[in-house]
Specification:
0% of the residues lie in helices and 51% in strands. By secondary structure, the chain is an all-beta fold. The strands form 5 sheets. Strands 3-6-9-10 form a 4-stranded parallel beta sheet, with no helix packed on it. It has a 3-stranded parallel beta sheet with strand order 1-4-7, with no helix packed on it. A 3-stranded parallel beta sheet has the order 2-5-8, with no helix packed on it. The radius of gyration is 18 Å and the shape is globular.
Length: 188
């Protein structure tokens, strides 16, 4: 079978939007016919990608037929709107087939001036040479014993629950979500 694997989403359809996203983990596609791997999405059909960064590793392994790989998407169908999307040099161990995104060197990816249009006051930060999203929950445990995410709980539903075709946007006012870890609960 084919594998669609991305740092944010595996297979993305027309209309999807990815804004202010960071992929810093790792992707390995194993034992598949064709592999579609990307820092944002393995396969991206249209949509919008803006202010994204991929610093995690993207590696295919044991691919039978073809590998489609990129810093933003392994394969793009119907041109997506991509603006200010970056990936770190060296995260991809194969020839890049994806057309979008700008490769940055190790030194460039640790400098604010490399990221045009990014909000470093409220959304992004660079600390210890790493770009990060601000205000994400951080573990206070030592790195040798990380806490484990055991669930996600909606503690309060959004005010608007009914939508009709043509509504302009998703309204999440009133929504409260908590991440439940093995050692704590964090309100998101």
């Amino acid at each position: 079978m084919d594998s669609y694997t991305g740092g944010i989403c595996g297979f993305s359809r027309e209309g999807a939007e990815y804004t202010d996203c960071l992929f810093a983990g790792g992707i390995i596609a194993e034992k598949c016919a064709n592999a579609y791997l990307g820092g944002v999405s393995g396969k991206l059909i249209g949509g919008k990608v803006e202010r994204t960064v991929a610093t995690g590793s993207i590696m295919p392994s044991e691919i039978i037929s073809h590998t489609y790989i990129g810093g933003v998407a392994g394969e793009e169908l119907s041109e997506p709107a991509v603006k200010n999307a970056f990936y770190k040099k060296g995260i991809i161990n194969e020839e890049i087939t994806g057309l979008y995104g700008k490769e940055l060197s190790e030194s460039a990816i640790s400098k604010k001036d490399s990221f045009t249009g990014f909000d470093f006051n409220d959304v992004w930060s660079i600390s210890d040479g790493k770009i990060e999203l601000k205000n994400l929950p951080k573990s206070n445990k030592p790195t040798d014993s990380p806490s484990t995410l055991t669930g996600i709980k909606i503690t309060s539903k959004p005010e608007k629950l009914t939508y009709t075709q043509g509504d302009s946007a998703l309204d999440l006012r009133g929504l409260e979500v908590s991440a439940i870890y093995s050692d704590k609960t964090v309100k998101l």
